[in-house]
Amino acid sequence: MMCMEEMKRYESFKQKFFHWFLAFPDDEPFLAAADELLALLKEEMGLEQAVFYLFDPERAAFYPEASAGGAMGAGAVAADGGQEIALLDGGSHEKARLFFSLPDGTPALLELTYRKERAIDRPLLQAVRADFADLFGKLAAMLQGEGEEKRYGQLHRFAAKIHSSMRIDDVLEEIIRTLQNVYPSFTYYLLLSHDNHLRDHLPIKVLALDEGEGQTAALRAFLTGQVQCDELETPRRSVLYAPIKGVQAVYGVIQIIAPYAAPFPQREVRFISLLAGTAGSALENAKLYEQSRRLVADLQLINDTMRQLNARMRLHEGIEYMVSQIRQSFGADEVGFFLFADGRRELLPGSTPFFYEERSAMYVKWVEERRRDGQDILFAGDAWASSLTPFRSIMAAPMQQNKETKGVCIALAREPYRFTFEMFKLLESLVQHSTLAFMNAILREELEKLVVTDYLTKLYTRRYLDETIQKSMETDGSGAFLLIDIDNFKQINDLYGHQIGDEVLIRVAETVRASVRENDVAARWGGEELAVYLPNVHLVDAVAAARRITEKVRQHTAPAVTVSCGVSWWGRRFGDNAKQLFKQADKALYRAKEMGKNCIFVYDGRRLYKA
């Protein structure tokens, strides 16, 4: 027979339960409702504690989920062979454990703790067990139905909203917002690959795609496209990884961390999978839209670049424009163009100054090694994971024409993962299209050089020299003219033959060219006579150049020859012209020949003298 006093207490609980139920909000989570229900039971029956447990099949034990009386610190309860009621003697207290199952089949446990003198007999415990099994079952089903309806309403609104957006940022933000609404007590992150630029205002992490320490659950979800479950050790938490999967690929993983260490129910897994799948479909659409826009922009960039390159006649102008475009379009810090010719690698003018420094060699070497290995993809998001290396991102695109590699373009960035693979493919296309313009500019400049270059000595022609002097006299303030003749050149031809004579002439020409400044013009005047024009120099500097030439010719020719030199000079205040300049230098050279050769004579406009 039931104890009448305890029966009255229990009946009082039932009566108050009716009023509690009428006032209970229908949108409260099940475990919150369980807390309130246990508090009501504890108060009405005079219990010390009332704890509700759920069974964890992975650890084969019951774990506390709701309580009244501060018993959540209690440990796990081992499964007890399927009995319905177990009584435990705790000295001054007694515990009654009532085992039952929820409608979805999950084993549950209601543990009541009371003073021993308040002993509750077994018939009443059986009644409490039966009532609470039915009560928790109906409460869970009702709240779960309400919750499911609301959650799937959230999912419907989520799908409608993200599928109406074509921006990746909007899709990612809506994923986070929906998770906040559905699981306000959970912690969550979006794990995305390096190709997605991170948004600081969203809980986004980079998905580690290497397997250096084994394949993580997040990586398994990304690679398999299947939901994965894991557990954190400190503090113990259950974690779920749901792949953000579209039709074409998996774009990332949603990481959801529960505030407890119990397995995710299958209904939660199904819902999260639906949400992640919906997000994957929308993210894929947004990516495809952005890719189509980027493709149009890329084609526009290539078209504009080709138009600008074709309008630039000089090679260095074209390289400078391309360097500017690459830095602006890809965020590169340094850009270098290299030309392969005669087994050598030549840095083209217009490249950024860094590539003229010795420290650029390691980056060029990195590209060269991969080219030799036959690698087609010369691209790395973080090639040197070291703070000692100024540039972490690198990509290189070959300059190809008629399936022959003519050179390479190298782009560097300080920030790791600054370049995406899409950027690399665009750079390849951009460089491929520009190569023809560069090769045409090189060929055009070579033809221009041939027109103004003597075929034997490779010095400028007399016509080019005349034009240069004429322009200089129009724009500069002064200039000097050196007329050089190889002494006894006829004897060289008679003794050694014309072939040796030509070689001597070539050697003298090379010596002359090496002895003057880059902006000075060395030309073949005719026969064995050479000429040099030096713009914007004083007469004393012109004489010094003449001495340098005569000494080097004497030292570096075989068979050894000497030269005679006539020097003339003009200044704007004297009103000289090119014809006078040539005539004065010719007079000076004639006097040098008369005075025994191998010497220098100067005509300064007033007098003729030996230097």
Short description:
This protein is α+β, with helices and mostly antiparallel strands. It has 14 helices and 22 strands. A hairpin with a 4-residue loop joins strand 21 and strand 22.
The helix fraction, in percent, is 40-55%
Share of β-strand residues: 15-25%
Strand segment count: 22
Largest sheet geometry: 6 strands, antiparallel
From the alpha carbons, calculate the radius of gyration and give it in angstroms. Answer: 45 Å
**Terminal-residue CA separation:** 141 Å
Give the spatial strand order of the biggest sheet.
3-2-1-6-5-4
Chain-averaged pLDDT: 81
* Structural class computed from helices and strand pairing: alpha+beta
Tell me the overall shape.
rod-shaped
Poorly predicted runs? none
Count of separate DSSP helical elements: 14
InterPro entries: Diguanylate_Cyclase, GAF, GAF-like_dom_sf, GGDEF_dom, Nucleotide_cyclase, Rev_trsase/Diguanyl_cyclase
Domain GGDEF: 477-605
Pfam family, one: GGDEF
Protein name: GGDEF domain-containing protein
